[in-house]
Amino acid sequence: MPPLFGALATIEHVLRLLVAVVVGILAIVCVLDWLVRTRRVNAFGPIARFMRQTVSPLLDPVERSVIRAGGLPSAAPWWTLALAIVVGIVFINAVHFVFSQIVMVTVYASQGGPGLFYLLVSWTFSLLQIALLVRVVVSWLPISPYSPWVRWAFALTEPILRPLRNVVPTLGAFDITPIIAYFGLQLLERALLGFFTGM
Predict the structure, then answer these.
(1) CA torsion angle for 57, 59, 60, 62 (degrees, to 10)?
(2) How do the domains of the chain map onto residue ranges?
(3) Largest CB tally within 10 Å, which of 76, 108, 182, 188?
(4) CB 154 within 8 A of CB 145
(5) In this structure, are residues 135 and 155 in contact, taking their beta carbons and an 8 Å threshold?
(6) What phi, psi does 112 have (nearest 5°)?
(7) Cα–Cα distance measured from residue 199 to residue 197, given in angstroms and rounded to the nearest whole number
(8) Is the pTM of this model over 0.85?
(9) Would you say 164 and 181 are in contact if contact means Cβ atoms under 8 Å apart?
């Protein structure tokens, strides 16, 4: 294994541990803050004073969001912890994705033309599949398809889905063409790469 791969694996491992430690410390802080907010500890004790002076101001934006959504202020620590866990998972997955792409580029670029073709095909199909997933998720949310955040997904997938809609009937209110397109892209990618590597 090249030194670069070992270094990337070590960095990823250290980042995973760091995220776990940060989330663990935040969990303790959120439990203490919740105990103070719900008066389960002495409101005039040193822990309560410390939490009100240092931690509560940091949780104010989350608390305001919780109150606007109709929740209780005492739920702010739990929402903060949940948000931290989600951000940690997304961060770890993003790091893993970037590092795996670096490894893949290194391996396939060293193979010359065939390796670059493999990368190009793999990235193209992955982008189309991500665009399909974004489109499906957006259809469940009150987000306009013309929003600049998701317009790219509709622009990439509409040329694939439009012909499918002429062939595949909808199941009541459900449009299953994104599912068919997703699996169709997987099959096409495997066939293309299999044909090319078999040559």
Answers:
(1) 170
(2) 1-110, 112-199
(3) 76
(4) yes
(5) no
(6) 80, -145
(7) 5
(8) no
(9) yes
